[in-house]
Amino acid sequence: MLQDRAELIGNATETQKLGAAVYDQWARSRKKDGWTSVMEVYAKGLKAYPKDSLLTQNAVAACDKEGVPLMNAKMWEEAQTIFETGLKYLPGNSNLEIRLKACRKQLKK
């Protein structure tokens, strides 16, 4: 694990940047396996590097890539499922919670 080798890099910030970049590339390489595979890798990266902005931002973007087109097509139940799944990987993420709330609001109409 990269954190175990931090002394070789000599800087905790640089260690995190490098580690996050590795997880990001790994997640991107999993696109062909489906968006949940991508989210799994981002979740692992965020476990290793909690609250890392690159990993968080790109995980939200991966979820949005699936859910927002469904929202635009007014496919509220399907979009709701996407954002609920996204929140399993990114619990408490405010961006995903806002999208989920919007879906639920539309379903109540």
Compute the number of structural domains.
1
Q: N-to-C SSE series?
A: HHHHHH
What Rg is obtained from the alpha carbons, in whole angstroms? 16 Å
Shape: elongated
CATH architecture title: Alpha Horseshoe
**What profile does the largest beta sheet have?**
none
> Which fold name is given in CATH as the topology?
Serine Threonine Protein Phosphatase 5, Tetratricopeptide repeat
Q: Beta-strand percentage?
A: under 5%
- The whole-number mean of residue pLDDT values reads 91
- In helices, the fraction of residues equals over 70%
How is this structure best described in words?
With 109 residues, the protein is an all-alpha fold. The protein has one domain: Serine Threonine Protein Phosphatase 5, Tetratricopeptide repeat (Alpha Horseshoe). The protein has six helices and no strands. Helix 3 packs antiparallel against helix 4 and helix 5 (76-89) runs antiparallel to helix 6. The longest helix has 20 residues, at 53-72. It is elongated, with a radius of gyration of 16 Å.
Key traits:
single chain; 109 residues; mainly alpha; Serine Threonine Protein Phosphatase 5, Tetratricopeptide repeat; 78% helix; 0% strand; elongated
Topology:
Layout: H1 6-9, H2 12-29, H3 35-48, H4 53-72, H5 76-89, H6 94-108
Helix pairs in contact: 2-3, 3-4, 4-5, 4-6, 5-6
